[in-house]
## 1
Amino acid sequence: MGKRTITFIFFATTICFSCRTYVSGNGSKHRQFLPTKDRAAISDIDTNSFIKLPFNLNDYCNKVAYKNGKRVIETIEGTDLSTIANTKGRYYVYFWNPVCPAARIDIHKMDSLSKKGENVIMISMRSNYDIISNKLDKTSFAQYPCYVLEAEKYTDLLLVRKIRFTKEACESCYEQYKDDLAVADYLLVENGSITPIMYNDTTNSSILKN
Protein backbone atom coordinates (compact mmCIF):
# COMPACT_ATOMS: atom_id res chain seq x y z
CA MET A 1 0.00 0.00 0.00
CA GLY A 2 1.47 3.33 -1.06
CA LYS A 3 2.14 6.33 1.17
CA ARG A 4 -0.50 8.42 -0.61
CA THR A 5 -3.10 5.69 -0.16
CA ILE A 6 -2.33 5.44 3.56
CA THR A 7 -2.54 9.22 3.91
CA PHE A 8 -5.88 9.31 2.09
CA ILE A 9 -7.31 6.55 4.28
CA PHE A 10 -6.10 8.39 7.39
CA PHE A 11 -7.78 11.66 6.42
CA ALA A 12 -10.94 9.91 5.19
CA THR A 13 -11.22 8.07 8.51
CA THR A 14 -10.59 11.28 10.46
CA ILE A 15 -13.29 13.13 8.56
CA CYS A 16 -15.73 10.26 9.00
CA PHE A 17 -15.31 10.11 12.76
CA SER A 18 -15.20 13.92 13.10
CA CYS A 19 -18.57 14.48 11.43
CA ARG A 20 -22.04 14.41 12.87
CA THR A 21 -25.07 13.79 10.65
CA TYR A 22 -28.29 15.61 11.55
CA VAL A 23 -31.79 14.82 10.27
CA SER A 24 -34.16 17.75 9.77
CA GLY A 25 -37.88 17.67 10.35
CA ASN A 26 -38.46 17.49 6.59
CA GLY A 27 -36.28 14.38 6.32
CA SER A 28 -33.25 16.07 4.77
CA LYS A 29 -29.79 15.41 6.19
CA HIS A 30 -26.72 17.56 6.70
CA ARG A 31 -23.34 17.00 8.26
CA GLN A 32 -21.39 19.07 10.74
CA PHE A 33 -17.63 18.74 10.55
CA LEU A 34 -15.83 18.79 13.91
CA PRO A 35 -18.93 19.45 16.07
CA THR A 36 -18.30 21.62 19.12
CA LYS A 37 -17.61 19.79 22.36
CA ASP A 38 -17.73 20.69 26.02
CA ARG A 39 -14.12 20.23 27.06
CA ALA A 40 -14.56 21.32 30.67
CA ALA A 41 -13.82 18.42 33.00
CA ILE A 42 -16.71 17.57 35.29
CA SER A 43 -14.27 16.91 38.13
CA ASP A 44 -12.84 20.43 37.86
CA ILE A 45 -15.56 22.04 39.99
CA ASP A 46 -14.16 24.32 42.69
CA THR A 47 -15.86 22.90 45.77
CA ASN A 48 -14.83 25.95 47.78
CA SER A 49 -16.89 28.21 45.53
CA PHE A 50 -19.62 26.00 44.08
CA ILE A 51 -22.00 23.30 45.22
CA LYS A 52 -23.49 21.03 42.54
CA LEU A 53 -26.99 19.67 43.10
CA PRO A 54 -29.76 18.02 41.08
CA PHE A 55 -32.51 20.26 39.74
CA ASN A 56 -35.07 21.43 42.29
CA LEU A 57 -37.83 23.77 41.10
CA ASN A 58 -38.30 25.03 44.66
CA ASP A 59 -34.79 26.48 44.55
CA TYR A 60 -35.83 28.55 41.53
CA CYS A 61 -39.14 29.62 43.08
CA ASN A 62 -37.47 30.51 46.38
CA LYS A 63 -34.49 32.15 44.67
CA VAL A 64 -31.84 29.96 46.25
CA ALA A 65 -28.61 31.11 44.62
CA TYR A 66 -26.27 30.17 47.49
CA LYS A 67 -26.09 27.40 50.04
CA ASN A 68 -23.52 27.47 52.82
CA GLY A 69 -21.88 30.44 51.11
CA LYS A 70 -21.37 28.57 47.83
CA ARG A 71 -22.87 29.34 44.43
CA VAL A 72 -25.49 26.74 43.55
CA ILE A 73 -25.04 24.83 40.29
CA GLU A 74 -27.96 22.56 39.42
CA THR A 75 -27.82 19.89 36.72
CA ILE A 76 -31.08 19.76 34.82
CA GLU A 77 -32.48 16.90 32.74
CA GLY A 78 -35.22 16.77 30.15
CA THR A 79 -37.52 14.92 32.54
CA ASP A 80 -37.28 17.85 34.94
CA LEU A 81 -39.31 19.96 32.53
CA SER A 82 -42.35 17.82 33.34
CA THR A 83 -42.10 19.15 36.89
CA ILE A 84 -42.18 22.68 35.51
CA ALA A 85 -45.00 21.87 33.07
CA ASN A 86 -47.17 20.63 35.93
CA THR A 87 -47.03 23.98 37.73
CA LYS A 88 -48.97 27.14 37.06
CA GLY A 89 -47.38 29.89 35.04
CA ARG A 90 -45.20 30.21 31.98
CA TYR A 91 -41.50 29.42 31.76
CA TYR A 92 -38.97 30.23 29.06
CA VAL A 93 -36.18 27.66 28.96
CA TYR A 94 -33.21 29.12 27.12
CA PHE A 95 -29.97 27.37 26.15
CA TRP A 96 -26.76 29.38 26.01
CA ASN A 97 -23.04 28.95 25.52
CA PRO A 98 -21.07 30.88 28.18
CA VAL A 99 -17.81 30.99 26.20
CA CYS A 100 -19.44 32.26 23.01
CA PRO A 101 -18.95 36.03 22.41
CA ALA A 102 -22.61 36.29 21.37
CA ALA A 103 -23.67 35.08 24.82
CA ARG A 104 -23.67 38.70 25.96
CA ILE A 105 -26.57 39.42 23.61
CA ASP A 106 -28.45 36.29 24.68
CA ILE A 107 -28.06 37.15 28.35
CA HIS A 108 -29.22 40.72 27.80
CA LYS A 109 -32.46 39.82 26.03
CA MET A 110 -33.33 37.06 28.50
CA ASP A 111 -32.46 39.32 31.44
CA SER A 112 -34.83 41.94 30.04
CA LEU A 113 -37.56 39.32 29.85
CA SER A 114 -36.86 38.21 33.41
CA LYS A 115 -37.04 41.79 34.69
CA LYS A 116 -40.53 42.04 33.16
CA GLY A 117 -41.63 39.34 35.58
CA GLU A 118 -41.37 36.33 33.27
CA ASN A 119 -39.95 33.04 34.52
CA VAL A 120 -36.72 32.40 32.64
CA ILE A 121 -34.44 29.42 33.18
CA MET A 122 -31.03 29.83 31.56
CA ILE A 123 -29.40 26.47 30.82
CA SER A 124 -25.72 26.45 29.99
CA MET A 125 -24.65 23.85 27.44
CA ARG A 126 -21.14 23.94 28.91
CA SER A 127 -19.72 23.16 32.34
CA ASN A 128 -17.52 26.23 32.78
CA TYR A 129 -18.96 27.05 36.19
CA ASP A 130 -16.79 30.07 36.93
CA ILE A 131 -17.63 31.72 33.60
CA ILE A 132 -21.33 30.92 33.98
CA SER A 133 -21.43 32.45 37.43
CA ASN A 134 -19.44 35.55 36.48
CA LYS A 135 -21.72 36.36 33.54
CA LEU A 136 -25.03 35.66 35.25
CA ASP A 137 -24.13 37.31 38.55
CA LYS A 138 -24.30 40.69 36.80
CA THR A 139 -27.96 40.13 35.93
CA SER A 140 -31.30 39.28 37.53
CA PHE A 141 -30.24 35.63 37.27
CA ALA A 142 -27.85 36.21 40.17
CA GLN A 143 -30.75 35.38 42.49
CA TYR A 144 -31.32 31.92 41.00
CA PRO A 145 -29.26 28.72 40.77
CA CYS A 146 -27.09 28.27 37.67
CA TYR A 147 -28.35 25.47 35.43
CA VAL A 148 -26.20 23.20 33.29
CA LEU A 149 -26.31 20.18 30.98
CA GLU A 150 -23.38 17.85 31.40
CA ALA A 151 -21.58 15.20 29.39
CA GLU A 152 -22.13 12.43 31.93
CA LYS A 153 -25.83 12.52 31.00
CA TYR A 154 -26.10 13.63 27.38
CA THR A 155 -22.66 13.43 25.61
CA ASP A 156 -19.98 16.10 25.23
CA LEU A 157 -21.28 17.34 21.83
CA LEU A 158 -23.13 20.58 22.52
CA LEU A 159 -25.83 20.44 19.84
CA VAL A 160 -26.45 16.74 20.38
CA ARG A 161 -26.74 17.44 24.09
CA LYS A 162 -29.45 20.02 23.43
CA ILE A 163 -31.31 17.68 21.04
CA ARG A 164 -31.29 14.76 23.48
CA PHE A 165 -32.40 16.94 26.36
CA THR A 166 -35.34 18.30 24.37
CA LYS A 167 -36.28 14.85 23.06
CA GLU A 168 -36.29 13.52 26.61
CA ALA A 169 -38.49 16.43 27.70
CA CYS A 170 -40.88 16.16 24.76
CA GLU A 171 -40.88 13.10 22.51
CA SER A 172 -43.57 14.58 20.24
CA CYS A 173 -41.37 17.66 19.74
CA TYR A 174 -38.62 15.44 18.37
CA GLU A 175 -41.05 13.58 16.14
CA GLN A 176 -41.99 16.91 14.57
CA TYR A 177 -38.65 18.71 14.38
CA LYS A 178 -36.05 15.94 14.61
CA ASP A 179 -32.53 17.40 14.89
CA ASP A 180 -33.78 20.88 13.98
CA LEU A 181 -34.27 21.15 17.75
CA ALA A 182 -30.58 22.04 17.86
CA VAL A 183 -31.43 25.52 16.57
CA ALA A 184 -34.64 26.11 18.50
CA ASP A 185 -34.63 29.58 20.03
CA TYR A 186 -35.98 28.35 23.35
CA LEU A 187 -38.57 26.06 24.92
CA LEU A 188 -41.87 27.47 26.10
CA VAL A 189 -43.29 25.54 29.05
CA GLU A 190 -46.88 26.45 29.81
CA ASN A 191 -50.19 24.83 30.75
CA GLY A 192 -48.75 21.34 30.91
CA SER A 193 -47.13 21.50 27.50
CA ILE A 194 -43.60 21.98 26.15
CA THR A 195 -43.22 23.82 22.86
CA PRO A 196 -39.96 24.42 20.96
CA ILE A 197 -39.96 27.93 19.54
CA MET A 198 -37.90 28.15 16.38
CA TYR A 199 -36.04 31.29 15.37
CA ASN A 200 -38.36 31.99 12.42
CA ASP A 201 -41.53 31.62 14.50
CA THR A 202 -42.63 35.26 14.43
CA THR A 203 -45.58 34.71 16.75
CA ASN A 204 -43.52 33.61 19.74
CA SER A 205 -39.88 34.43 19.12
CA SER A 206 -40.72 38.11 18.55
CA ILE A 207 -40.94 38.58 22.31
CA LEU A 208 -37.20 37.89 22.46
CA LYS A 209 -36.36 40.34 19.69
CA ASN A 210 -38.01 43.42 21.14
## 2
Amino acid sequence: MNLFDDPVAFIRHNLLRLGDSLVTLRPEMMGIEGTIVVRLREENENDFIVSLTRNRKGLMRLMPRCYTAWWQKAANFYWIEYEPNVASQVAFPAYICAYQENTTCVQYLGEAARLMFTFVMTGCTFGVGIPKPDGGVLVGHANATEFASGNDLDADNTQARFEQRQGLVATNMSRAMVEPQNYQDQRAIPPGERDDRRASVIGVRTPSAGAAPPRGKWDFYYQIPLVSG
Protein backbone atom coordinates (compact mmCIF):
# COMPACT_ATOMS: atom_id res chain seq x y z
CA MET A 1 0.00 0.00 0.00
CA ASN A 2 1.44 3.34 -1.09
CA LEU A 3 0.55 6.86 0.03
CA PHE A 4 0.59 8.12 -3.55
CA ASP A 5 -1.19 5.21 -5.24
CA ASP A 6 -4.14 5.33 -2.85
CA PRO A 7 -3.85 8.10 -0.23
CA VAL A 8 -7.21 7.38 1.37
CA ALA A 9 -6.45 3.70 1.95
CA PHE A 10 -2.99 4.59 3.26
CA ILE A 11 -4.23 7.07 5.86
CA ARG A 12 -6.95 4.65 6.90
CA HIS A 13 -4.40 1.99 7.79
CA ASN A 14 -1.38 4.07 8.86
CA LEU A 15 -0.84 6.92 11.31
CA LEU A 16 0.69 10.19 10.09
CA ARG A 17 1.85 13.22 12.04
CA LEU A 18 3.90 16.35 11.27
CA GLY A 19 7.44 16.26 12.68
CA ASP A 20 9.46 18.90 14.53
CA SER A 21 11.23 20.01 11.35
CA LEU A 22 7.97 21.65 10.22
CA VAL A 23 7.11 23.51 13.42
CA THR A 24 8.71 26.69 12.07
CA LEU A 25 7.90 27.28 8.40
CA ARG A 26 10.68 29.48 7.01
CA PRO A 27 10.38 31.39 3.69
CA GLU A 28 13.16 29.36 2.06
CA MET A 29 11.12 26.19 2.63
CA MET A 30 8.24 27.43 0.48
CA GLY A 31 7.76 26.19 -3.07
CA ILE A 32 5.07 26.54 -5.73
CA GLU A 33 1.77 27.90 -4.34
CA GLY A 34 3.19 27.76 -0.83
CA THR A 35 3.84 24.01 -0.89
CA ILE A 36 6.71 22.46 1.06
CA VAL A 37 8.77 19.47 0.00
CA VAL A 38 8.51 16.73 2.62
CA ARG A 39 9.23 13.04 3.15
CA LEU A 40 7.93 10.23 5.37
CA ARG A 41 10.06 9.00 8.27
CA GLU A 42 8.84 5.71 9.72
CA GLU A 43 8.71 5.33 13.50
CA ASN A 44 10.22 1.95 14.41
CA GLU A 45 10.61 2.22 18.17
CA ASN A 46 7.03 1.36 19.13
CA ASP A 47 4.22 -0.92 18.02
CA PHE A 48 1.01 0.78 16.97
CA ILE A 49 -2.56 -0.42 16.60
CA VAL A 50 -5.34 1.31 14.68
CA SER A 51 -9.04 0.75 15.31
CA LEU A 52 -11.20 0.92 12.18
CA THR A 53 -14.87 0.77 11.39
CA ARG A 54 -15.89 -1.95 8.99
CA ASN A 55 -17.16 -0.74 5.63
CA ARG A 56 -20.80 0.24 5.92
CA LYS A 57 -22.49 -0.62 2.64
CA GLY A 58 -26.05 -1.01 1.45
CA LEU A 59 -28.64 -1.05 4.22
CA MET A 60 -25.95 -0.90 6.89
CA ARG A 61 -25.30 2.71 5.89
CA LEU A 62 -28.80 3.52 7.15
CA MET A 63 -28.22 1.99 10.59
CA PRO A 64 -27.35 4.22 13.55
CA ARG A 65 -23.62 4.66 14.02
CA CYS A 66 -23.78 2.89 17.40
CA TYR A 67 -24.18 -0.40 15.52
CA THR A 68 -20.85 0.03 13.75
CA ALA A 69 -18.47 -2.92 14.11
CA TRP A 70 -14.84 -2.18 15.03
CA TRP A 71 -11.73 -4.15 14.21
CA GLN A 72 -8.07 -3.65 14.96
CA LYS A 73 -4.84 -4.17 13.07
CA ALA A 74 -1.16 -3.40 13.41
CA ALA A 75 -0.21 -0.09 11.85
CA ASN A 76 2.86 1.82 10.83
CA PHE A 77 3.48 5.31 12.19
CA TYR A 78 5.08 7.96 9.97
CA TRP A 79 6.47 11.38 10.79
CA ILE A 80 6.19 13.93 7.99
CA GLU A 81 9.47 15.85 7.85
CA TYR A 82 10.88 18.69 5.78
CA GLU A 83 13.09 17.46 2.92
CA PRO A 84 15.62 20.09 1.72
CA ASN A 85 16.71 17.92 -1.21
CA VAL A 86 13.88 18.43 -3.69
CA ALA A 87 15.49 15.89 -6.06
CA SER A 88 15.30 13.10 -3.49
CA GLN A 89 13.34 10.05 -4.62
CA VAL A 90 11.40 10.05 -1.34
CA ALA A 91 10.48 13.74 -1.50
CA PHE A 92 7.03 15.03 -2.44
CA PRO A 93 5.25 18.40 -2.25
CA ALA A 94 2.50 19.02 0.30
CA TYR A 95 0.51 21.90 1.66
CA ILE A 96 1.10 22.55 5.37
CA CYS A 97 -1.57 24.43 7.31
CA ALA A 98 0.43 26.02 10.12
CA TYR A 99 -0.41 26.31 13.82
CA GLN A 100 0.04 29.30 16.08
CA GLU A 101 -1.36 29.83 19.55
CA ASN A 102 -4.34 32.20 19.73
CA THR A 103 -4.39 32.59 15.95
CA THR A 104 -6.33 31.28 12.95
CA CYS A 105 -3.72 30.12 10.44
CA VAL A 106 -4.92 30.00 6.83
CA GLN A 107 -3.66 27.99 3.85
CA TYR A 108 -4.89 27.96 0.26
CA LEU A 109 -4.96 24.51 -1.34
CA GLY A 110 -4.57 24.48 -5.10
CA GLU A 111 -3.20 22.04 -7.68
CA ALA A 112 0.50 22.12 -6.78
CA ALA A 113 0.21 19.18 -4.35
CA ARG A 114 -2.13 16.28 -3.74
CA LEU A 115 -1.81 16.18 0.06
CA MET A 116 -2.31 18.60 2.95
CA PHE A 117 -1.26 18.17 6.56
CA THR A 118 -1.73 20.26 9.68
CA PHE A 119 -0.38 19.97 13.19
CA VAL A 120 -1.99 17.63 15.69
CA MET A 121 -4.97 19.23 17.42
CA THR A 122 -5.52 18.92 21.18
CA GLY A 123 -8.44 21.33 21.34
CA CYS A 124 -8.16 23.38 18.14
CA THR A 125 -10.70 23.62 15.33
CA PHE A 126 -10.04 22.99 11.64
CA GLY A 127 -12.22 24.63 9.01
CA VAL A 128 -12.78 24.29 5.27
CA GLY A 129 -14.08 27.04 3.00
CA ILE A 130 -16.18 26.96 -0.18
CA PRO A 131 -14.26 25.46 -3.12
CA LYS A 132 -13.52 27.63 -6.16
CA PRO A 133 -14.64 26.48 -9.63
CA ASP A 134 -11.17 25.00 -10.22
CA GLY A 135 -11.34 23.01 -6.97
CA GLY A 136 -9.03 25.24 -4.91
CA VAL A 137 -10.12 25.90 -1.33
CA LEU A 138 -9.08 27.80 1.80
CA VAL A 139 -8.54 25.89 5.06
CA GLY A 140 -7.77 27.15 8.54
CA HIS A 141 -6.39 25.86 11.85
CA ALA A 142 -7.92 27.92 14.68
CA ASN A 143 -6.67 28.19 18.26
CA ALA A 144 -8.10 30.41 21.02
CA THR A 145 -6.36 29.16 24.15
CA GLU A 146 -6.47 32.62 25.74
CA PHE A 147 -10.22 32.21 26.23
CA ALA A 148 -9.93 28.93 28.14
CA SER A 149 -10.51 29.01 31.88
CA GLY A 150 -10.08 26.70 34.85
CA ASN A 151 -7.10 24.39 35.26
CA ASP A 152 -5.80 21.09 33.91
CA LEU A 153 -8.05 19.12 36.27
CA ASP A 154 -11.16 21.20 35.68
CA ALA A 155 -10.77 23.06 32.40
CA ASP A 156 -13.58 25.05 30.79
CA ASN A 157 -12.96 25.43 27.05
CA THR A 158 -16.47 26.52 26.13
CA GLN A 159 -15.52 30.10 25.24
CA ALA A 160 -12.32 29.01 23.49
CA ARG A 161 -14.26 26.61 21.27
CA PHE A 162 -16.80 29.34 20.48
CA GLU A 163 -14.08 31.83 19.52
CA GLN A 164 -12.36 29.27 17.31
CA ARG A 165 -15.60 28.56 15.47
CA GLN A 166 -16.35 32.27 15.08
CA GLY A 167 -12.87 32.92 13.74
CA LEU A 168 -13.42 30.38 10.98
CA VAL A 169 -16.94 31.65 10.23
CA ALA A 170 -15.64 35.23 9.92
CA THR A 171 -13.02 34.13 7.39
CA ASN A 172 -15.44 31.97 5.34
CA MET A 173 -13.90 28.65 6.39
CA SER A 174 -16.93 27.09 8.03
CA ARG A 175 -18.36 24.97 5.20
CA ALA A 176 -17.04 21.97 7.13
CA MET A 177 -15.26 21.87 10.47
CA VAL A 178 -13.46 19.40 12.71
CA GLU A 179 -14.16 20.65 16.22
CA PRO A 180 -12.98 19.37 19.63
CA GLN A 181 -16.29 17.63 20.26
CA ASN A 182 -15.72 15.59 17.09
CA TYR A 183 -12.47 14.04 18.29
CA GLN A 184 -12.78 14.31 22.09
CA ASP A 185 -16.26 12.80 22.35
CA GLN A 186 -16.08 9.38 24.00
CA ARG A 187 -18.89 8.13 21.75
CA ALA A 188 -16.63 8.57 18.72
CA ILE A 189 -14.27 5.78 19.75
CA PRO A 190 -14.62 1.98 20.01
CA PRO A 191 -15.69 0.32 23.29
CA GLY A 192 -12.95 -0.40 25.81
CA GLU A 193 -10.64 2.38 24.60
CA ARG A 194 -10.18 6.05 25.35
CA ASP A 195 -8.90 8.77 23.08
CA ASP A 196 -5.87 10.86 23.99
CA ARG A 197 -7.70 14.07 23.05
CA ARG A 198 -5.80 14.58 19.81
CA ALA A 199 -6.64 14.57 16.11
CA SER A 200 -4.62 14.92 12.91
CA VAL A 201 -6.40 16.31 9.83
CA ILE A 202 -5.22 15.22 6.38
CA GLY A 203 -6.41 16.63 3.07
CA VAL A 204 -6.40 14.59 -0.16
CA ARG A 205 -6.93 16.11 -3.60
CA THR A 206 -8.55 13.77 -6.11
CA PRO A 207 -7.85 14.81 -9.73
CA SER A 208 -10.78 14.78 -12.12
CA ALA A 209 -10.78 12.83 -15.36
CA GLY A 210 -11.03 15.83 -17.68
CA ALA A 211 -8.82 18.85 -18.24
CA ALA A 212 -11.61 21.39 -17.81
CA PRO A 213 -12.37 22.89 -14.36
CA PRO A 214 -12.89 21.65 -11.80
CA ARG A 215 -9.65 19.71 -12.25
CA GLY A 216 -9.98 17.99 -8.89
CA LYS A 217 -11.51 18.30 -5.46
CA TRP A 218 -10.18 18.26 -1.90
CA ASP A 219 -11.53 15.84 0.70
CA PHE A 220 -10.53 15.85 4.36
CA TYR A 221 -10.03 13.09 6.92
CA TYR A 222 -8.91 13.05 10.52
CA GLN A 223 -7.16 10.42 12.60
CA ILE A 224 -7.75 9.95 16.32
CA PRO A 225 -4.93 8.07 18.08
CA LEU A 226 -6.35 5.66 20.65
CA VAL A 227 -4.96 4.26 23.87
CA SER A 228 -6.05 0.89 25.26
CA GLY A 229 -7.60 0.85 28.70
## 3
Amino acid sequence: MRVLQWFLVLPAAAAGWILGILVGSTIQSISDRLCPIEYVVSQSCFAPWSESVFRLAMAVGAGVAGATIVVFPALMAPNWRHKVAMVCFVSGALTAIYFLTATGEWLAFVTALLAGGLSCRCVAKLISDKPA
Protein backbone atom coordinates (compact mmCIF):
# COMPACT_ATOMS: atom_id res chain seq x y z
CA MET A 1 0.00 0.00 0.00
CA ARG A 2 2.84 2.40 0.81
CA VAL A 3 4.39 1.95 -2.62
CA LEU A 4 1.08 2.81 -4.27
CA GLN A 5 0.78 5.93 -2.09
CA TRP A 6 4.25 7.07 -3.14
CA PHE A 7 3.38 6.48 -6.80
CA LEU A 8 0.28 8.64 -6.37
CA VAL A 9 2.16 11.66 -4.97
CA LEU A 10 2.99 13.09 -8.42
CA PRO A 11 -0.51 12.57 -9.83
CA ALA A 12 -1.86 14.28 -6.70
CA ALA A 13 0.31 17.32 -7.48
CA ALA A 14 -0.89 17.24 -11.10
CA ALA A 15 -4.49 17.12 -9.85
CA GLY A 16 -3.81 20.26 -7.82
CA TRP A 17 -2.39 21.98 -10.89
CA ILE A 18 -5.42 20.99 -12.96
CA LEU A 19 -7.80 22.19 -10.25
CA GLY A 20 -6.12 25.61 -10.28
CA ILE A 21 -6.44 25.82 -14.06
CA LEU A 22 -10.10 24.81 -13.90
CA VAL A 23 -10.90 27.41 -11.24
CA GLY A 24 -9.22 30.21 -13.19
CA SER A 25 -10.85 29.12 -16.45
CA THR A 26 -14.25 28.93 -14.80
CA ILE A 27 -13.96 32.46 -13.45
CA GLN A 28 -12.95 33.71 -16.89
CA SER A 29 -15.75 31.79 -18.57
CA ILE A 30 -18.36 33.22 -16.19
CA SER A 31 -17.01 36.70 -16.85
CA ASP A 32 -17.25 36.18 -20.60
CA ARG A 33 -20.83 34.93 -20.34
CA LEU A 34 -21.86 37.94 -18.25
CA CYS A 35 -20.28 40.41 -20.70
CA PRO A 36 -22.80 42.90 -22.10
CA ILE A 37 -23.49 42.31 -25.78
CA GLU A 38 -22.24 45.77 -26.79
CA TYR A 39 -18.71 44.80 -25.64
CA VAL A 40 -18.60 41.45 -27.44
CA VAL A 41 -16.54 41.30 -30.62
CA SER A 42 -15.89 37.94 -32.31
CA GLN A 43 -17.07 36.11 -29.19
CA SER A 44 -14.52 37.93 -27.01
CA CYS A 45 -15.35 40.44 -24.29
CA PHE A 46 -13.72 43.85 -24.59
CA ALA A 47 -15.46 45.51 -21.65
CA PRO A 48 -13.37 48.00 -19.67
CA TRP A 49 -13.20 45.58 -16.74
CA SER A 50 -12.40 42.43 -18.73
CA GLU A 51 -8.62 42.83 -18.32
CA SER A 52 -8.99 43.15 -14.54
CA VAL A 53 -11.23 40.09 -14.36
CA PHE A 54 -8.71 38.13 -16.44
CA ARG A 55 -5.90 39.06 -14.05
CA LEU A 56 -8.10 38.18 -11.07
CA ALA A 57 -8.96 34.81 -12.62
CA MET A 58 -5.26 34.10 -13.15
CA ALA A 59 -4.44 35.10 -9.58
CA VAL A 60 -7.21 32.99 -8.02
CA GLY A 61 -6.31 30.01 -10.20
CA ALA A 62 -2.63 30.40 -9.29
CA GLY A 63 -3.53 30.60 -5.61
CA VAL A 64 -5.66 27.46 -5.77
CA ALA A 65 -2.89 25.67 -7.66
CA GLY A 66 -0.25 26.91 -5.21
CA ALA A 67 -2.22 25.56 -2.26
CA THR A 68 -3.34 22.26 -3.73
CA ILE A 69 0.04 21.41 -5.27
CA VAL A 70 1.40 21.45 -1.72
CA VAL A 71 -1.53 19.89 0.17
CA PHE A 72 -2.63 17.08 -2.17
CA PRO A 73 0.77 15.33 -2.37
CA ALA A 74 1.34 15.79 1.37
CA LEU A 75 -1.99 14.09 2.08
CA MET A 76 -1.15 11.28 -0.33
CA ALA A 77 2.35 10.58 1.02
CA PRO A 78 2.47 7.71 3.53
CA ASN A 79 5.13 9.49 5.63
CA TRP A 80 7.55 12.45 5.50
CA ARG A 81 4.57 14.63 4.70
CA HIS A 82 6.19 17.89 5.72
CA LYS A 83 9.22 17.13 3.54
CA VAL A 84 6.93 16.26 0.63
CA ALA A 85 5.10 19.56 1.15
CA MET A 86 8.41 21.47 1.20
CA VAL A 87 9.63 19.80 -2.00
CA CYS A 88 6.31 20.58 -3.69
CA PHE A 89 6.43 24.18 -2.49
CA VAL A 90 9.96 24.71 -3.81
CA SER A 91 9.05 23.05 -7.12
CA GLY A 92 5.94 25.20 -7.37
CA ALA A 93 7.89 28.35 -6.53
CA LEU A 94 10.40 27.60 -9.30
CA THR A 95 7.53 27.01 -11.71
CA ALA A 96 5.91 30.27 -10.60
CA ILE A 97 9.18 32.11 -11.28
CA TYR A 98 9.23 30.61 -14.77
CA PHE A 99 5.66 31.76 -15.42
CA LEU A 100 6.45 35.19 -14.01
CA THR A 101 9.30 35.63 -16.49
CA ALA A 102 7.09 34.36 -19.32
CA THR A 103 3.98 36.43 -18.54
CA GLY A 104 4.93 39.23 -16.17
CA GLU A 105 1.86 38.49 -14.03
CA TRP A 106 3.06 39.62 -10.60
CA LEU A 107 -0.31 39.22 -8.91
CA ALA A 108 -0.59 35.56 -9.92
CA PHE A 109 3.03 34.99 -8.86
CA VAL A 110 2.57 36.51 -5.40
CA THR A 111 -0.75 34.73 -4.91
CA ALA A 112 0.75 31.35 -5.81
CA LEU A 113 3.70 31.86 -3.46
CA LEU A 114 1.55 33.04 -0.56
CA ALA A 115 -0.98 30.23 -0.96
CA GLY A 116 1.75 27.61 -1.32
CA GLY A 117 3.70 28.97 1.65
CA LEU A 118 0.64 29.12 3.88
CA SER A 119 -0.34 25.60 2.83
CA CYS A 120 3.16 24.37 3.61
CA ARG A 121 2.90 25.95 7.05
CA CYS A 122 -0.51 24.34 7.61
CA VAL A 123 0.85 20.94 6.62
CA ALA A 124 3.67 21.37 9.13
CA LYS A 125 1.22 22.30 11.90
CA LEU A 126 -1.78 20.08 11.17
CA ILE A 127 -0.67 16.94 9.38
CA SER A 128 1.31 14.39 11.29
CA ASP A 129 4.46 12.84 9.80
CA LYS A 130 3.52 9.52 11.35
CA PRO A 131 2.87 6.76 8.81
CA ALA A 132 -0.65 6.71 7.45
